[in-house]
Design goal:
2-enoyl-CoA Hydratase, Chain A, domain 1; alpha/beta; 516 residues; 8-stranded mixed sheet; single chain; 7-stranded mixed sheet; 40% helix
Length: 516
């Protein structure tokens, strides 16, 4: 062959790689309302930025006639590219090739590009659409999964890892998304489960459909596996791009700071009357968040799961922060098992990637009852105090209303080394609510009183003045200052400016043992 012929042979092989199993296979994918792997990469990445890796790898097995289905690149497309100019590593499972099944070669490709991501310090994005392990390869497929899971674990806290679910993900394959930082599911086409409906029916007799078992709604609102939900693939890619805009490329780089376009001294008077004076009335903490942080910057994650807590990213004068808040509009903002897990996981992610933490507290305590106690609320609630105590990033807390008992302690209190704690004039900081405390402290006096309700009201007022007032906590140094709600934005911006170069020494140890 001459040079021209060699070059033509290369171009022919490239086209063969791009075609995969052919136009019919792509048409079948489209008929299911899904894009092909390469179409997905083209839509997510900046135009022309994709650099493919390992396009010619084929599997090396022959059992059950699998040797007759060797396609260049096998069942996954991997490589490097850019999103909004930022470098990323990407893998996209190709359902048109043997159902996107996870083979030894498939694992080799994904692991190689994840290794490149770790060594280069760039985010890793995995587009999932696969029937699971390639049964015809036996232990080789399972070993490939183990290699990937090990790398997911090693990459944790080093580079951001995002899983976008664009089809089925079953059996052991679900543990790779489960090990990544964020899972984005797509309504109608994505499903995740350890055991499918048929096996469940055979083993337990329970009948359940795919959507109920492992659809986007289930994992976003019940299991908490999914952090974000998209209506379709294009929205999933848009969510991914926005999420990445808040994240650093790795744990040695700061989050991207944008030129501020919002007045740092902006004081919103609505905040001054947002919290009802009657502590039994609710309000939406999101209204405070969107008014305090840079306008339009709040990006909530895990919104459907444990709605009694709110977590997400925002910007303060252009800088990225992690926002954690109790939500009085749902179960009065009480902490339960799911809310504890949600908060602790988010705090630990932010700390791993140098994202400062801003916490808003309005919580009456932990959820009472046998369901919560038997479910392990003690160990789940302990995750919050562990996460905040472990975190070394700048931490600022704002107590908007109730901060009672254990909830006061775990929600970024001064004693677990929060740098600055502010309170609004509506803040109540106490072991418990005034009504419950009076019933315990003055049980005898109330029983003997001629007009117990009048006496109770007097005791409640005295208790609130003595223990519930933010000025009592400020007098003892447990609160650094009492501020007007409308001053919060300016005070937070100033606080983070002073804390930017915070140094937090830690004890020498391999790692702690977080309660699970």
């Amino acid at each position: 062959m001459n040079s021209h012929e060699l070059n033509q042979e290369l171009l022919r092989r490239r086209e063969q790689v791009r075609q995969g199993e052919g136009m019919d296979a792509a048409a079948r994918q489209h008929a299911k309302g899904k894009l092909t792997a390469r179409e997905r990469i083209d839509r997510l990445l900046d135009r022309g930025s994709f650099q493919e890796v390992d396009p010619y790898i084929v599997h090396r097995h022959s059992a059950f006639g699998i040797d007759e289905r060797r396609v260049p690149g096998d069942s996954v497309v991997v490589g490097l590219g850019r999103i909004m100019g930022r470098k990323v590593a990407i893998a996209a499972q190709d359902f048109t090739i043997i159902g996107g099944s996870f083979s030894e070669a498939h694992a080799q490709k994904v692991c190689k590009v994840l290794d490149l991501a770790i060594s280069s310090g760039i985010p890793f994005i995995f587009l999932n659409d696969s029937v699971g392990a390639r049964i015809q390869e036996g232990v080789w497929s399972l070993a490939g999964y183990a290699e990937l899971f090990w790398r997911n674990s090693q990459a944790s806290g080093v580079i951001p890892q995002i899983s976008i679910m664009l089809g089925p993900c079953a059996g052991g394959s679900v543990y790779s998304p489960g090990l990544t930082d964020f899972v984005i599911m797509t309504e109608g086409i994505s499903h995740m489960f350890i055991t499918g409906p048929e096996v469940i029916k055979t083993v337990t007799g329970e009948e359940v459909d795919l959507e109920t078992l492992g659809g986007a709604h289930t994992h976003a609102s019940i299991s908490g596996v999914a952090h974000l939900v998209a209506a379709d693939e294009d929205e999933a890619f848009a969510i991914t791009r926005r999420l990445l805009s808040y994240l650093p490329s790795n744990n040695a780089a700061p989050p991207a700071r944008l030129p501020p376009d919002d007045d740092p001294t902006r004081a919103d008077p609505v905040l001054d009357t947002l919290v009802p004076l009657e502590d039994t009335q609710s309000y939406d903490i999101r209204e405070a968040i969107v008014r305090i942080f840079d306008l339009g910057s709040f990006f909530e994650v895990h919104a459907r799961f444990a709605p009694n807590a709110v977590v997400g990213f925002a910007r303060l004068h252009g800088e990225v922060v992690g926002v954690i808040a109790n939500q009085p509009a749902w179960l009065a903002g009480v902490l339960d098992i799911d809310a504890s897990d949600k908060i602790a996981r988010f705090v630990r992610f932010c700390d791993a990637f140098h994202i400062p933490l801003i916490t808003f507290v309005d919580c009456p305590g932990f959820m009472p009852g046998t369901v919560q106690e038997h479910g392990g609320i003690i160990r789940h609630g302990a995750k919050i105090v562990y996460a905040y105590s472990e975190a070394t990033v700048p931490k600022v807390c704002v107590i908007t209303r109730k901060a009672y008992g254990g909830a006061y302690i775990v929600m970024s209190s001064k004693q677990i080394r929060t740098d600055l704690v502010y309170a609004w004039p509506t803040a109540e900081i106490a072991v418990m609510g005034a009504e419950g405390a009076v019933n315990i402290l003055y049980r005898k006096q109330l029983a003997e009183a001629e007009h117990p309700e009048e006496v109770r009201a007097q005791f409640i007022a005295e208790y609130r003045e003595r223990f519930g007032s933010p000025y009592s906590a400020a007098a003892s140094g447990h609160v650094d200052d009492v501020i007007l709600p409308s001053e919060t934005r300016a005070r937070l911006i100033a606080a983070l400016d002073f804390l930017r170069d915070k140094q937090a020494p830690s004890l020498p140890k391999k790692h702690g043992c977080m309660p699970l």
